[in-house]
Amino acid sequence: MKTREVKIINQHLEDEMEVWGYQPCVWKMILVGVGAVFSGGLLLLLLYWLPEWGVKGTCTHTSMRDAHTLLLRTTDEFRQWFRARVHVMWAPGRKPFDSLDLQSTAQLPNGDCGISAVHEERQGKFAHRQPAQIHYFTHHSTKYYWNDVIQNFELYKGLEDLKVSCASIQSDHSSGLSKTLQDYRRLFFGENEIAVKVPSLFKLLIKEVLNPFYIFQLFSVILWSAEDYYYYATAIVFMSVISIATSLYTIKKQYVMLHDMVATHSVVRVSVCRGNKDIEQAMSTDLVPGDVIIIPANGIIMPCDAVLIHGTCIVNESMLTGESVPVTKTSLPCSGEDAAWSYKIEEHKRHTLFCGTHVIQTRFYAGELVEAVVVRTGFSTEKGQLVRSILHPKPTDFKLYRDAYLFLLCLVGVAGIGFIYTIVLSIMNKVPAKTIIIESLDIITITVPPALPAAMTAGIVYAQRRLKRVGIFCISPQRINMCGQLNLVCFDKTGTLTEDGLDLWGVQTAVDGSFSPPEADAAEESLVNTAFVACMATCHSLTKIDGELAGDPLDLKMFSATGWILEEPTEEETALHNPIMPTVVRPPKHCVPGANQNDLLTQNMELSELSSCEIGIVRQFPFSSTLQRMSVVVRRLGEKHMNAYLKGAPEVVARLCKQHTVPQSFTDTLETYTKQGFRVIALAHRQLESKLSWHKVQSLTRGLIETNMEFLGLIVMQNKIKEETAGVLRELRQANIRTLMVTGDNMLTAISVARDCGMVRAHERVIIADAAPPKDFHPASITWHYTENPVQTSKDNQTVEMNLEDGMYEQSYHFAVTGRAFAVITEHFPQLIQKLVLKATVFARMAPDQKTQLVEVLQSIDYTVGMCGDGANDCGALKRAHSGISLSELEASVASPFTSTTSNISCVPNLIREGRAAVVTSFCVFKFMALYSIIQYLSVTLLYSILSNLGDFQFLFIDIAIILIIAFTMSLNPAWKELVWRRPPSSLISGPLLCSVLTQIVTCLLFQVLAFLLVRQQSWYEMWTPQSDACNVSRSGLSHSLNVTSPHDHKNIKNYENTTLFYVSSFQYLAVAIIFSKGKPFRQPSYKNWPFMLSCIGLYTFLLLIMLYPVPAIDSFLEIVCVPHDWRVTLVIIVTVNAAVSFMLEILIVDIILRRLVFRSNQRVNRPTERSSAATPQEAHDRWGPSFLSWLFCQTNKPPRVLYMHLALELQDAADWPPRPSTVTYASDPQSRISAPL
Which ranges carry the Cation-transporting P-type ATPase N-terminal domain (predicted)? Predict the structure, then answer.
């Protein structure tokens, strides 16, 4: 395989794949056809299930250029295989953005989705131009086209592929496309629609029925019918039909819901600009990248991704982010440094209108329309990619499912032994060939339980219902099990740990380079005419929607604190002016100095003064989480010059100001506020040159505006911690779940909030890792700052305690990292990043993409990561985490797998509790179904030794009345009311679970063999005949010589061994169900699961009644023979002792000896301690038992299985970790050792 040509597509992306080329091979196809005939179609099924075999079995390898069929394999951990057919289309160019001779392309071929001839349109005007033959294939709703230059298939996303600058989009792509060019590009990009095709019921049925599980069931049903087990076969068919119908209904419903969600407003009429400046109406499905569309003033649901080139829009992006706060989108910069950058959707989100989002309002120039250039269409859009991820989800990487397949293979191995045993035994007893085949195959159907998948899914379905009752909605049910394994949860701060709304604590203005005393009220009369209040009143992105102010909560709070009024122009007012009609803010009448005078003269003066306070917002640079600031250009009525106002993170604003305007006490004052947990915002101002006109301002870049500012002062906002936060974090810490804060806020504010909510405790020290990038031939460096400990102020002789017992270590220090430092450390200190995140608790000033990177780093050291945020800036991290939960009012959001309508983090413990309960339920059900198969296998194998078997109605009673009822009711245990420190096991192939299953198998085997042998030793025992009456025959009259004779009928169902094993095995099913259905510490006790308890009590009662007081009708139905009462009492004793032994073994061996002594003590053995060498003889004597058992179970000195535990052990012995206070680590040092103290 490695020597053959292999190409990589989507390189370095999430959906990266390897591709091989193949072409059909006639002789291979003939061989497959012959094999399919002789195997009865099974070979075709095998090739359908395994695409790799299907392609290699029918095709030969060839170059990618000549391939007719492609074999694709994902490069992630799942290594999924896919096959795709190569199609051919004809086009006048090879790439969508090729320039064409318009005369020769006045009419284009329509293109083709399959291998075809050239269309008739090649004739006439197009005849002299030879169309190009283009190979392409479609995979997961995405087309990949062959590129002769790179000799590989490539994906055309949209206008981004050109790597054009922002200025180029404004100059070269703002006039629109001709109809001809639009038609040409549509050949490559297709119709602009996100087509969710709802499959027909017939297609869904075929796909569902071809599932390996149902094929196995079909095989079983055919086998049972051949064996005349019609009743049981009918019951299985009935259950399968119900299962398939339910599955089809659910899948069809999901497709219809997704189709309806996507189809809503997806096809609209739009105004499109043509190259000759004509505007025409067109359907949105005709749009292609490069088209210029007009955004109507009354809004629109965007049918594509487009970048604004003229005007401003107010957009609701809740469909994508789950956050309903309106966002302001501005036009793309057309000059300056910003305009020279290449356009990228991720970096220019503030200028991009995304498909599916709702444009509420537009702002525009008189005579100029709000225009946007189409960037992406169809499935390439942000909405399209979200829909693709729903249509084609990645497999859930959960060890339980992988282990379940391994376990099933073990059962198949056991079935293989029984298969061989049956054949050998039958041949020795000269059984007819037909019977040998049927009975040997029957062993396989017994060993692999047909109801296993349905029973395994039940626990997840019940958990999903319970989550819905507490306001948590799930769009990915398989992830519920993942929640049970979470050992680390990242939290956003604002709106998640703290209240969403901010309260204004006060303002502190700066005058002549020094701070004035703080003021509690920004609406003070003395501040009305100051630049500080003008900045508060204008530097925001608020807008009026239906007469109500809407926008960012912080902006709302800040603006309302000024008491000013915001007025927006109407469409009529905008049309009357040549320049843009600005949004105007003004103080209320009573706030203007002298407003309390009543005479006519002062009233006229008052109007004049009021007018002079009005400020028009001319240009807005929206807040950028990357830049951590926003700014506006304004003009006060009556003044000739304009002003620029800036607000943002204090550290950022201070760097953009003239140094003499920044107070010398700035750092100390900021630290004082942030240490108290206040959120601080800095304001700045700059008077612009009077020669700047309105239109010229529109073309300026923010880099030119946001420089040489004058520092105005600080706004101090109080962000209160939610009532539930501290309690939830304490609960998670006690449950051995690590918590992190990932926020865009200030570092010291984040540390203060972390201390206040208990994420960092009072006695624990915080070490700030302040990293600087390389500069002026100096290498990148990290400076380690130790913050003051509120309890212990000494900075030297740091003690670092790590206790790895039970997988949890107490840490006496935490790292705190800023987004800037995180980027530097990731790039220049890759060997330190894992060590750092192992102990880092606070991540401040983190950009949205950095949050996603952090989740990936944590996952790389084997943490199972949860993420809880508000859905706005956290979308990437929410989707990347093993379990993302968005706090949103929406019932379901594509932003994350889980959405909680509760606005606080109390949903996190609820989700983890339900996840743990679902995991344990899955294990319980799997263990029970495995034991059910083995118990039935043992019974049948023993009966085969006397050429007998269980009866049709006995199978029916066991499988329907006992197994199905128990399997579905044992999943109903609710989650335990509190989180415990221990996590449920994540693997079926683990010591305690394997020991649990094996001890129960051995116990059941011993008691079945005991009963089987004992019944044959009874004095009344004889070969049963219809005339036998063991209940009434005297013991003295029995003849032992009759014990070994041939059976009277070919099935030989009715006999004493069958009856005995039926009774014993029936009680064994119930015993293991009760033993495996454990409650505390992850689920509520079984006695609170009343359907399960009623089922068990009812079945126990029924079985005891028919065993002790036989009912002829029931005995006849179940094909049970009459046995003496003494033997019935003996059977009661046997099943009672069996249940007691099974229960004692489970409690004693699995729960006490193995879990508490072996697997837990092993963690203590792994931890090197100084005391171990100095252990007293008594301690050594006390430890010999666990040590011996650990040796017996190969657990001695076994290293931790997860990487973060390895790192913790390494760092425990590292003398230079954590770094000493005020030291610097340089990137030039290969070991990245601390090289110099400051």
Answer: 158-229
Same domain, 968 and 1012: yes
Dihedral sign (CA 1022, 1027, 1030, 1033): negative
Domain end (from 718, 736, 759): 718
Residues 861 and 951 in one domain: no
Confidence (pLDDT) at 171: 82
CB 1086 within 8 A of CB 1079: yes
**Predicted local distance difference test score (pLDDT) of residue 860:** 85
Catalytic, 492? Answer yes
Q: What is d(CA 231, CA 881) in angstroms, rounded to the nearest whole number?
A: 48
Element (H or E) spanning 533, and its range? Answer: helix 531-538
| More confidently predicted of 251 and 122 | 251
Query: How many domains is the chain built from?
Result: 6
Helix (H, G, I), strand (E, B) or coil at 599: coil
Give CA–CA dist 1219/1236, Å, rounded.
11
CATH number of the domain residue 756 falls in = 3.40.50.1000
Q: Does the CA dihedral 644-647-648-651 come out positive or negative?
A: positive
β-pairing, 865-869 vs 488-491, is parallel
- Domain end, chosen from 264, 291, 307, is at 264
223 touches 445 (CB < 8 A): yes
Q: Confidence class of residue 591 from pLDDT cuts 50, 70 and 90?
A: low
Are 666 and 543 within one domain?
Answer: yes
For residue 408, tell me if it sits in a domain.
no
pLDDT reported for residue 1180: 43
Return the pLDDT at 603.
44
Strands (E), 284-370: 292-294, 300-301, 305-310, 312-316, 327-329, 352-353, 358-363
What 3-state class would DSSP assign to 199? coil
Q: What is the CATH number of the domain that holds 380?
A: 2.70.150.10
| DSSP 8-state code for residue 517 | P
Q: What angle do CA 7, 11, 16 make, to 5 degrees?
A: 85
Choice among 15, 305, 403, 492 that is catalytic: 492
What's the chain's length in residues?
Answer: 1238
- List phi, psi (to 5°) of 667: -65, -45
What tokens appear for 78 in the block? 């799942």
Beta strands in 384-428 (DSSP E): none
883 and 737, same structural domain? yes
Please state, rounded to an integer, the average pLDDT across all residues of the chain: 78
Residue 857 domain-assigned (yes or no)? yes
Average pLDDT over residues 1105-1117: 88
Residue 567 maps to a domain: yes
The 3-state DSSP class for residue 66 equals helix
| Other C-beta atoms lying within 10 Å of the C-beta of residue 960 | 17
What distance, in Å, lies between the first and last C-alpha atoms of the chain? 56
- Are residue 283 and residue 210 in the same domain, yes or no? no
Model confidence pLDDT, tens digit, residues 670-706 = 888 877 778 788 999 888 887 777 777 777 777 888 8
Under the banding of pLDDT at 50, 70 and 90, the label for residue 12 is: confident
For residue 700, being part of any structural domain is answered with yes
Nearest in space to 159 (alpha carbons), one of 96, 89, 93, 92? 96
Domain enclosing residue 46, as ranges:
1-97+131-155
Rounded CA-CA distance 394/408 in Å is 23
Q: State yes or no: pLDDT of 53 exceeds 60.
A: yes
Report how far apart, in Å, the C-alpha atoms of 229 and of each of 35, 214, 232, 573, 606 are.
31, 18, 6, 85, 100
Share of the chain above pLDDT 90, in %: 11
Q: How confident is the model at residue 195 (pLDDT cuts 50, 70, 90)?
A: confident
pTM of the model: 0.72
pLDDT in tens, 202-237: 888 888 888 777 888 788 788 777 777 777 778 778
Closest CA to 42 of 258, 252, 219: 219
Q: Which tokens hold the place of 95?
A: 């790439």
The residue with greater pLDDT, 79 or 1164, is: 79
